[in-house]
């Protein structure tokens, strides 16, 4: 990641040796529950009083569980490109953890291109450029297609 590109929110994702992004979640030591975004304590499982969660890399792939399309700019303080382009938001059930992670869908893919149950993989996309000229990126979902490079 170059100095001019930074995550919009620290600590939500990282990239592996090949540059592929993965989300960072947290896992409860006591009951094994996963949570995203990551947190250091206070297990989200109501039946568990665990208070120590470890940061863990999450599955890069999952199944599309639900999605929606935003046709209007978000309200302040969320940055919106001008002119506004509609974008899709996907809820993806992670392959190994079974939890749902929300994210924008990469540019150029809208609701008409999506189908519940399709395989999705993690990507990143620019969100906005901050006052220092740094491009802030966020995690995003994209459909797994055969048009891409070899699957990992
Ligand atoms: Zn727990």
TrEMBL record:
<dbReference type="InterPro" id="IPR052513">
    <property type="entry name" value="Thioester_dehydratase-like"/>
</dbReference>
<dbReference type="Pfam" id="PF01796">
    <property type="entry name" value="OB_ChsH2_C"/>
</dbReference>
<dbReference type="InterPro" id="IPR002878">
    <property type="entry name" value="ChsH2_C"/>
</dbReference>
<dbReference type="InterPro" id="IPR012340">
    <property type="entry name" value="NA-bd_OB-fold"/>
</dbReference>
<feature type="domain" description="ChsH2 C-terminal OB-fold">
    <location>
        <begin position="56"/>
        <end position="123"/>
    </location>
</feature>
<dbReference type="Pfam" id="PF12172">
    <property type="entry name" value="zf-ChsH2"/>
</dbReference>
<dbReference type="InterPro" id="IPR022002">
    <property type="entry name" value="ChsH2_Znr"/>
</dbReference>
<feature type="domain" description="ChsH2 rubredoxin-like zinc ribbon">
    <location>
        <begin position="21"/>
        <end position="53"/>
    </location>
</feature>
<protein>
    <submittedName>
        <fullName>Benzoylsuccinyl-CoA thiolase</fullName>
    </submittedName>
</protein>
